[in-house]
Specification:
eight-stranded parallel β-barrel; globular; 15 helices; 37% helix; alpha/beta; TIM Barrel; binds 6-O-phosphono-beta-D-galactopyranose
């Protein structure tokens, strides 16, 4: 048997993309509640500097809606340069926000978890919406209805022997803190987060063992607003926000280790290792340097416990000083995680001089085209061998168990009149990636502790807000504009994944 006996097979979601119920049970507004559905927004904007061949695609990306005095507008979530010089993010009348209902998991979670159990899930990676617990982030006491909701959700999981894997912050934070002081760019957010963490740790200590601090903490450069509530182009604010998150994460890990020894704490990094474009030495160096800045920096702080020299040098050249306070560095040192969680969707290509090279239109990691790879309808390059490569580099660097908490194919599915959904493309994608994980375990000796494909039930896309970019084993009958019955249907991949888990990865057919 290649996969270890206790391998954590499951699936992953995030509150802001699956729950809906955005104003129910005392929930406060979150930054994600100001994100539109790309292509459906009433705020078309100029997209300066985007190559014409990518324009149509970029118009499908989500906007952040905002107010500037009496004026309102929309700025592209993934392109910081489109943010206005002034203005504060807000919910605007007449705009459609797909997260309001999302997959309506808030009202369907019992049915959804029963379906996960039918697939034999060993774990369910989900996130707590901070705004259900502290609606603005600044309350003194938590919102009991929000706490009770997750109590019930965890009980439902445990009833089936499904281990909850909980992300504390997944592209969701109180909108109030973003409006008041640019979210994580201000140190006061750390105290609000600490209060939230200590409440959920204490409340769920007997129900939850596996915790992740921040989802894709290294996505800050791409989506600082969704990640950290920073509505600004200023790179110094972004670096500050990242730093605050890492110190706050270390504090959470330290608290867990001191007070809740049964907890297993992980960080979560978006992991897309680059290949050099050619064997030209400069391309090789570009690949190493870019990966250090985009990815290793965050892992090194959270797993090794210190600020690496290669980052401090770059900051120095940029004239940016991190707001290090007394005690921070000690915290980083002791608050190191027990395991490393990653999202893996694709690899990238780095060149010393990328000018003139063809790039894919994929959103978060815009990459030079790799002629050896196929790509999804959304331009994400598909690279199962890259996953084995990623697992090797990561394990070699940290020697801590690796949890693949996101991976998957966003695709359009067709619900047939008889209620079936035939998705051989998804099965093919997942099969090849599971084979690559098996190879990394069996042939390379990498310690992989689990695998939770993204969007195990259809949910709204983070980058576009579309429901039609589907990842699930379970089809949710709703379209991009929120029309539909919201009934659940098992896709072909549902039956396939059930067998995969049943056989502990031995049967991929
Ligand atoms: C990751 C995020 C998820 C998720 C996934 C797929 O970056 O952690 O929240 O959405 O990507 O991306 P998308 O939804 O844009 O297809």
């Amino acid at each position: 048997m290649i996969f270890p006996k206790n391998f954590l097979w499951g699936g992953a979601t995030a509150a802001n993309q699956v729950e809906g119920g955005y104003n129910e049970g005392g929930k406060g507004l979150s930054v994600s509640d100001t994100l539109t559905c790309g292509g459906l927004s009433s705020y078309p904007i100029d997209l300066p500097g985007i190559p014409p061949e990518h324009l149509e695609y970029m118009k499908k990306m989500r906007f952040i809606t905002y107010r500037d005095g009496g004026k309102t507008g929309g700025a592209l979530m993934v392109k910081r340069e489109t943010l206005p010089d002034r203005g504060i993010p807000d919910v605007l009348e007449g705009e459609y926000y797909p997260g309001n209902v999302a997959s309506d998991h808030y009202h369907h979670y019992k049915e959804d978890i029963a379906l996960f159990a039918e697939m034999n899930f060993k774990c369910y990676r989900m996130s707590i919406a901070w705004t259900r617990i502290f609606p603005t982030g600044e309350e003194e006491t938590p919102n009991e209805a929000g706490l009770a909701f997750y109590d019930s959700l965890f009980d439902e999981c445990l009833k089936y022997g499904i281990e909850p894997v909980v992300t504390l912050s997944h592209y969701e934070m109180p909108l109030h803190l973003a409006q008041k002081w640019n979210g994580w760019a201000d140190r006061r957010t750390m105290a609000c987060f600490e209060k939230y963490v200590s409440v959920v740790f204490e409340r769920y200590k007997d129900k939850v063992k596996y915790w992740l601090t921040f989802n894709e903490i290294n996505s800050m450069v791409h989506i600082a607003y969704a990640n950290a509530g920073v509505f600004s182009k200023d790179p110094a604010l972004l670096e500050t926000a990242s730093y605050h998150q890492m110190v706050a994460g270390a504090k959470a890990v330290k608290l867990a280790h001191e007070k809740y020894p049964r907890f297993q704490m992980g960080c979560m990094i978006s992991y897309s290792p680059p290949y050099p474009n050619t064997c030209k030495p400069e391309d090789g160096l570009a690949a190493v340097r870019s990966f250090d800045q985009s990815t290793n920096y965050y892992g090194d702080v959270m797993v090794r416990g210190y600020l690496p020299e290669y980052k401090l040098k770059v900051l120095e050249h940029q004239g940016i000083t991190l707001p290090v306070r007394e005690g921070d560095l000690e915290l980083l040192k002791v608050g190191v995680v027990d395991f490393v969680a990653i999202s893996y969707y694709q690899t990238s290509i780095m060149a010393a001089s990328p000018d003139g090279l063809k790039t894919t239109e994929a959103n978060l990691t815009r990459s030079i085209v790799n002629p050896y790879l196929e790509k999804s309808e959304w331009g994400w390059q598909i690279d199962p061998v890259g996953l084995r490569f990623a697992l090797n580099t990561l394990y070699d660097r940290y020697h801590k168990p690796i949890f693949i908490v996101e991976n998957g194919l966003g695709a359009k599915d067709i619900l047939e009149p008889d209620g079936t959904v035939h998705d051989p493309y998804r099965i093919d994608y997942l099969k090849k990636h599971i084979q690559a994980i098996g190879d990394a375990i069996e042939l390379d000796g990498v310690n992989v502790m689990g695998y939770t494909p993204w969007g195990c039930i259809d949910l709204i896309s983070c980058s576009t807000g579309q429901m039609s970019k589907r990842y699930g084993f379970i089809y949710v009958d709703a379209d991009d504009a929120g029309h539909g019955t919201y009934r659940r249907f098992r896709k072909d991949s549902f039956y396939w994944y059930k067998k995969v888990i049943e056989s502990n990865g031995a049967n991929l057919e």
